[in-house]
Give the backbone structure.
Amino acid sequence: MNTRTYTLLVFLQLLFFAGCKNTVQQDTLQKQQVNTQDKIVSVTGIILAQSDELEIGKNKTLTAAVIPATATNKKVTWTSSDPNVIALNSTTDTVVTLNAIAKQVGKTAVITATSEDGNKTASCIVTVTHIKVPYSELERYLENSASATEVNYIEVTGNIPVSDLIGSYDTSKRLGTSSAFGKKFNDTPTKRVALKLPHIAEENRDMSFCFYKCSSLVKVENLPQTVTNMESCFESCSNLTDIPALPEKVNKLSNCFLKCEALTKASITAEYATMMDGCFYGCTKLQEVAITSESIHSMEDCFTNCENLQKILSLPNKAVNWYQCFSNCSNLKELPAIPATANNIQFCFADCSALTSVTLNCDYDHLTDKKEAFDKCFSLNDGSIKVPEAFYDNYTTTNALQEMAIPGDTTEERRAKFATIKQD
C-alpha cells in the first residue's frame, strides 16, 4: 500500500469516528433537554391572608405562599387598589412591605399578588386602624411622638382605672376639673386626637367631667357601656366634631356637650336618658339635631345659643321642662311640636328671630312658667303659632299674650299669630 492510499484510509476513519461522537453528543443533549422539561413545576395557586390590619402611618410585611412549594417560578407582582390608603414600599418574589398612608382610620385597600407563571392571583383586604398605645405610655406618646399637624388616631390599650375616668366640679368656684385620663390630653392641647377607648372590664357608672376642656379631642369611640352619668363629660371640647355612640343606659347628659363648638350634627338615641339640661348649650356650629329618647323630662337650656341650628328632626315627646331650650337659636325657622307634657316654656324661643312656625300641644293652664316664651320672635306671622282648639282661648287672652311676649303692637295683632289644630 502506497503512502497516498494509507493517508486516505486514515482520513476516512477519522471522519467516521468524529461523526459517531457528534451523534452521541446530540443524543445526550436531547436527553438532557427532555429531563429538564420534565422537572418544570407549574404554579397552581397563591395563598394569601384574606384580611389584615395596619396601624395608621405604620409599615408591615405581607407574604404570599406560591403553591406548590416546589414550583419552578415563584415570582409574583404586587398591586394596591388604592395607593393613597395602602402604599407598596418594596417587594420581593413573595413578600411586600405595606405602608398605611391614609389620613384616617377605617379606610381599606385590596392588596393583590399575581404569579408570573400562570397569572394566578390572591387578594387581601387591608384596613387602616388606630395606633395602639398602652395607657401607661399615653402621656409620653402624646408629648413626644404624636403629630403636631395631623390627627392622631390612638387606641388606648391596657387597663384604665375607673377612678381615672371621673372628673370633679368645685361648686364654690363654679369650676370643673377633668379626670386623670382627660388631663393627659389637656397637657398637650395642640395635638389633635381621635381616641378609641379599650374595653373596661370594671363596672363604671360615672364619667362626669371626664374630658372637661380637652380641646385636643376630635372624636371618641367605645365609651364604657355601664356608664349612666355623663354630666359635662365633653364640656368645652371645642374641637370635637362627632357625637360618640352613647352608653345604652346613660341617663344624665346635662351639659355633656356644652360649648363643643365644632359639632355640626347630633343624634341622641339613649333609651334611658332623662336629663339634657344644657346638653348642647353654646354649640355655635350645630346645624342639625335628632333626639328620639322618650324618657327625657328636662330640656332646660339644651340648645341655648346654638345660633346656627336650622333643622330639628325629632324631639322628646314626654319632656316637661323646656325652660330657655331654644333661646337665641337665631337661624331656627321651625321645629317639631312641643309635647302636651310641657309645663315650663319660659324664654323657650326667646331671640329666635327667624322662627316662622311653632306648635304647642300643651295646655296653657298647665304651664307654670311661660314668661317671654316668644320674646323677639319677629318672624312670626299670622297663624304661625298652632295650639289645640280646646286651649286657644286661654293662649290668646290679653294677659297671656303679654306674658309670653307675643310680637305685635296690639292685642289683635298678637292674637292673630295663633291658629288652632284639632287633636285626636
